[in-house]
Specification:
Blueprint lengths: L1 E4 L2 H13 L6 E5 L6 H11 L14 E4 L6 E5 L7 H5 L2 H5 L4 E5 L12 E8 L8 E8 L3
Parallel strand pairs: 2-5, 2-6, 4-5
Antiparallel strand pairs: 1-7, 3-4, 6-7
């Protein structure tokens, strides 16, 4: 599925709609360049899970946990991971196969350790269509 958005608000709303329908055990892998709107999407996703806490990118902590919504959200930012083995050191399997939903920014960096059935969300800019234009592809299948 491909969706186009033309503002951060629309990107956030799209995240909200996906989060509203998220189910226990799902893993969402977000791929996109710096500044493309991964965290904006994630804020909407969290709101769709009824999480009211301020959501920020866990760039230095690797994972932020949010437990107040209808499902726990485990928000990863693996940009600073130098090796997939580091993910095992923080207990990624407990998150991947736990009671919540995982959302992983820069997931392509740890693709070799991801479970088979993940949902890929690829966010791209197209400056010819405007500064806030985003093309968002969602692939609900196995490894990309």
């Amino acid at each position: 599925m491909m969706i186009e958005t033309n503002s951060p608000k629309e990107t956030c709303e799209m995240g909200y709609n996906i989060g509203k329908n998220a189910k226990k055990g799902q893993i969402y892998c977000i791929k996109g360049d710096l500044g493309v709107g991964k965290t904006v999407f994630t804020k909407g996703f969290a709101a769709g899970l009824n999480i009211e806490e301020n959501v920020s990118s866990p760039t230095f902590t690797i994972v932020n946990e949010y437990h107040e919504g209808r499902l726990p959200l485990y928000h990863f930012d693996v940009y600073r991971i130098s090796d997939s083995d580091e993910m095992y050191e923080i207990g990624c399997e407990e998150y991947f196969f736990g009671d919540g939903v995982c959302l992983i920014e820069w997931a392509e960096l740890i693709e070799d350790i991801l479970p088979e059935n993940v949902i890929w969300i690829v966010i791209e800019k197209d400056l010819e269509k405007g500064l806030d234009y985003r093309k968002i592809n969602i692939a609900e299948k196995g490894k990309k």
